[in-house]
Design a protein that fits this description.
heterodimer; A: alpha/beta; 3-stranded antiparallel beta sheet; 14 helices; 12 strands; globular; B: alpha+beta; 5 helices; binds pyridoxal-5'-phosphate; binds FE2/S2 (inorganic) cluster
């Protein structure tokens, strides 16, 4: 029985980096001034926010004035979609997206449909990647927005954002991407990508939870989600969460600086896990594309078993991972992403996502594979679908 | 999320596997919903002498199967037929609301297996084994 805690769920969240935390602390108790106040204590807070904004702008290759801080990735996505739809509804009411978006996008789109907007959900291909050609075919005269995630949170597939960006530009349609799984792992250049709006969230790159940012290209109109004071150039009211904003910027800055090293580290561990698991656990399927994929993500389906039992046994062995199984999501349907890439229900139920990070090492991989091998065997022996 | 009892039965399931020389078997659920339960019985003179299960499903599905086998072992088939999902839940010290259907599945699997035995004696009893989209809203 393994007793060392092994965290393999960096796609869900990451721990706050020590240096990041250290930079955040003074903004709770020492420098607590309201950034809108004119005295020095307030100005200090204001300066910290503007400094953070510059850091984020540098990281995304945007202008400082194009970065807005939000309370989470979910808010960034909500704001981008609702804000654009309401600002441009006179121009049209059609949105194009995909069928593998995060619920923060999907459920916002469902809401917008109830408000009278029309949404085309372009289905992805079997490898989990959307066809640019199919997006092109979905474009209508009244299309005002395309929203496609940069990389998928479950199967890690990286979408052809640059090509979609060019398409959007050609047809004069605004383009939003949810880059929440990507920021801190892949270099993001908003001009190169031709995106008009881009969402990020700090807790995916060793920053704090509850803070995100939205890039909004200059000249793009966007309605407010939060009305009130004049913060964020009147576009998002609320006294700023200075510590979290400072933390987001510091974490992103560090991530960008260590991008190459991080990629190498997580990819090496991920590839080792794939090799060992495919060698040692029969009837295992890898979900998603192997080339266009986040370096730290792998998603398996182990046939004949159900994912929740897998996670529970892993948990008993201090191994923390996630699954696309219905039973872990509170609904009875397995992950919409796994169904979208054409997995039959019973195979989608037996999925396991491992997402690697800084705190993992090779020893962890060997431990996990050994435990996993035993667990899968045990669950298969209990399964009426398994006849061996 | 789960009680200690559920975790105990999930991690140390009782009577798991295919029973040797069973004379009745019942299966409910379907893989699409994420749950299949199969119960094997060896019945002598209307007494369930031995019982085992195989389950494809979540932790709660494995735990409800396991406890159900314990609850009916050495019982008269007519007593076992009266097993309710409520009794299964109570024996496990409770289940989360989203997992109640797993206890229903356990009750139905037991009924289905006993119905198989009765059928061989020419007695037809009503069961609810057909997937009727019970899991969906
Ligand atoms: C792709 C994607 N979009 C949106 C979110 C939501 O971000 P947050 O948890 O910061 O609201 C997440 C993470 O949970 C994600 O992975
Ligand atoms: S067993 Fe099929 S829907 Fe419940």
């Amino acid at each position: 029985m393994n007793s060392k805690k092994i965290y393999l769920d960096h796609g869900a969240t990451t721990k706050v980096n020590d240096e990041v935390l250290k930079e955040m602390i003074p903004w709770f108790s020492e420098n607590y001034g309201n950034p809108s106040s004119i005295y020095s204590l307030g100005r200090k807070s204001k300066d910290a926010i503007e400094n953070a904004r510059q850091i984020v702008a540098d990281a995304l290759h945007s202008k400082q004035s194009e970065i807005y801080f939000t309370s989470c990735g979910t808010e960034s996505n909500n704001w981008a979609l609702k804000g654009i739809c309401y600002a441009y509804k006179k121009k049209g009411n059609h949105i194009i997206s995909t069928n593998i978006e995060h619920h923060a996008v999907l459920n916002t789109l469902k809401y917008l449909e109830k408000q009278g907007f029309e949404v085309t959900y372009v289905p992805v291909e079997k490898n989990g990647i959307v066809s640019v050609e199919k997006i092109k075919k979905a474009i209508r005269k009244d299309t005002i927005l395309i929203s496609v995630m940069y990389a998928n949170n479950e199967i890690g597939t990286i979408q052809p954002i640059k090509e979609i960006g060019e398409l959007a530009k050609e047809f004069d349609i605004l383009f939003h991407t949810d880059a929440i799984q990507v920021a801190g792992t892949i270099d993001i250049d908003v001009s190169d990508l031709n995106v008009d709006l881009l969402s990020i969230s700090a807790h995916k790159f060793y920053g704090p939870k509850g803070v995100g940012a939205l890039f909004v290209r200059r000249g793009v109109r966007i309605d407010n989600l939060l009305h009130g004071g004049a913060q964020e150039k009147t576009r998002r009211a609320a006294t700023e969460n200075i510590a979290n904003i400072v933390g987001l910027a510091k974490a992103l800055q560090m991530a960008v600086k260590n991008l190459e090293k991080y990629n190498k580290h997580i990819k090496k561990l991920r590839d080792l896990a794939i090799k060992l698991i495919m060698e040692q656990i029969p009837e295992t399927i890898i979900n998603g594309d192997m080339n266009n994929r986040l370096p730290g993500n792998i998603n398996f389906s182990f046939r004949y078993i159900e994912g929740e039992g897998l996670l529970l046994f892993l948990d008993m062995n201090q191994i923390f991972a996630s699954s696309g199984s219905a039973c872990t999501s509170g609904s009875l349907d397995p992950s919409h992403v796994l169904l979208a890439i054409g997995l039959p229900h019973e195979i989608a139920h037996g999925s396991l996502r491992l997402t690697f990070g800084w705190d993992n090492n090779e020893e962890d991989v060997y431990i996990v594979v050994n435990e996993l091998k035993e667990i899968v065997k045990r669950l298969r022996e209990m399964s009426p679908l398994y006849n061996k | 999320m789960y009680t200690e009892k559920v975790m105990d039965h999930f991690s140390h399931p009782r009577n798991v596997g295919e029973l040797k020389n069973y004379n009745a078997v019942g299966e409910v659920g379907n893989a699409k919903c994420g749950d299949i339960m199969r119960i094997y019985l060896r019945i002598e003179d209307d007494i369930i002498k031995d019982v085992s299960f195989k389950t494809f499903g979540c932790g709660a599905a494995i735990a409800t199967s396991s406890i159900a086998t314990e609850l009916i072992k050495n019982k008269h088939v007519d007593v076992a037929l009266e097993l309710t999902n409520k009794a299964v839940i109570e024996a496990l010290d409770g289940l989360p609301p989203a997992k109640i259907h797993c206890s229903v599945l356990a009750e139905e699997a037991v009924k289905e297996a006993i119905a198989d035995y009765k059928k061989k004696q020419g007695i037809i009893i009503e069961t609810h084994s057909q997937c009727d989209d019970c899991c969906r809203d």
